Amino acid sequence: MATEAPPLNYVPILLFIGIALAFGLVSLLVGKIVRPHRPYRAKLVPYESGSPLFQDARVQFPIRYYIIAMLFVVFDIEVVFLFPWAVVFQKIGLVGLLEMMLFIAILVVGFWYAWKKGALEWD
What we know:
- The protein folds into 2 domains: 10-44; 63-116, NADH:ubiquinone/plastoquinone oxidoreductase, chain 3 (Methane Monooxygenase Hydroxylase, Chain G, domain 1), CATH 1.20.58.
- Helices cover 63% and strands 0% of the residues.
- The chain is built from 3 helices and no strands.
- It is an enzyme of class 7 (translocase).
- It comes from Nitrospira tepida.
- GO terms for molecular function: NADH dehydrogenase (quinone) (non-electrogenic) activity; NADH dehydrogenase (ubiquinone) activity; quinone binding.
């Protein structure tokens, strides 16, 4: 059993992996050789642009930012559900329409609640 050769189906996969690794390594080496390397003091600071640090990076964001981000995710997921529904709409008929209307109504109620709580007011 130890003398069996690996199946020939794996040879193209191993060849592809080898070519991909070689391409990546050659690209990195050529880039290191060709690019100019002239560092100066301002470029070596943690902010490479050379801009001076004017405040601490750990600032508190208002809760409104997180609510808007969550609303974006919710409506993004809504679109993920709407596309397959639209594709099979002819097959599912009235039941599918009513279910999607209920789904959108729940999202609209959530949007209205966020609006009334003041999370969506723009300053």
